[in-house]
């Protein structure tokens, strides 16, 4: 309850090593609040080849490793309420990992604290980002910062509930908004946010209908939310609050937030939505408003660094296997048949990879993270021809970002070349 938009800034968050600040509602954000796609993360753990193109690190400097680590911490520092309000007074947290029931409405003896039960995360706790020490750049899967693959420790902040928070729950009015398109799991996220807020002791929780548009359209009224309202909402698809794209300008949104007394805003959406959330945060900061903006990244691609799994990913993989199974049946039943399945994955191939492994029916899987050649003795087309000659059929799974040059051209070329060497085999 003390962080300000630590989830919406386009960077992985890492606090300063000398930080003494306390962070509230962190256990809720432990799986949501670190927005960094795998595409951008590659810039941080660049290979030796990439490093040569970027003079950011001077490897001739004997202290380059120390400087790199310090710069890593500086760039990934977590924004906090006290960055703006130096006089913010911390209070004991109203939540603990060991306390699973809602807190009492009466605080005669002050806010309950479970620190003696080891129920909180220490501010200095760290998690090691890179856990493999590669001995050589040629090691399988090696991701090196320098040409010698020097072991460089990169520590990130551990998420979880803190002992101190900076908002009094009984004074908080929290709002939740879902923007952009639909994604499996939206209702699950809404439900968990509401339940967690109630555990903290927040009584005023509302939903903003139909994205950012709900801040400006007078016909759209706030939806009161509570555990009772959201108890079974996760059993339904879509979004309880509705979604939309676009909306009013940032100044108008913040005006409405100020009028309604919103002190916490939870934003569920994708890249554009979070760009808007960051703009809202900046406007609140400009106006010196005590408002926390929390971004919940909506991506079924599972491409957020430090997150085990993004919501909607399991559903996407499960549905993808249906398409793969259909393509397999078609290809296996036809003479020299080839099935090609295109799956989501603009900048990452997690859906394609997991669906391919889970199905056990894919012969070739093309993803953005792995370079491949269409031509040549070790090219995709040559291997596809070999599969048809030996197995009689083949199934190819392609993530939409595979090749990165032009997915449509790549897919069309595979189809054209496939026909060129399949048809002669049928004669």
Summarize this, please?
The chain is 32% helix and 12% strand. The chain is built from twelve helices and twelve strands. The chain has a five-stranded mixed β-sheet, with helices on both faces. Strands 10-12-11 form a three-stranded parallel β-sheet, sandwiched between helices. It has a two-stranded antiparallel ribbon with strand order 1-4.
Question: How does this structure look, described?
Answer:
It is a single chain. The chain has 12 helices and 12 strands. The chain has about 425 residues and is of the alpha/beta class. β5, α5 and β6 (about 205-210) form a beta-alpha-beta unit. The strands form 4 sheets. Strands 7-6-5-8-9 form a 5-stranded mixed sheet, sandwiched between helices. The model is unreliable at about 1-55 and about 420-425 (pLDDT under 50). The protein has helices at about 25-30, 40-45, 50-55, 65-75, 185-200, 225-230, 250-260, 270-285, 315-335, 350-360, 380-390, 405-425; strands at about 90, 125-130, 155, 165, 175-180, 205-210, 225, 265-270, 290-295, 340-345, 365, 395-400.
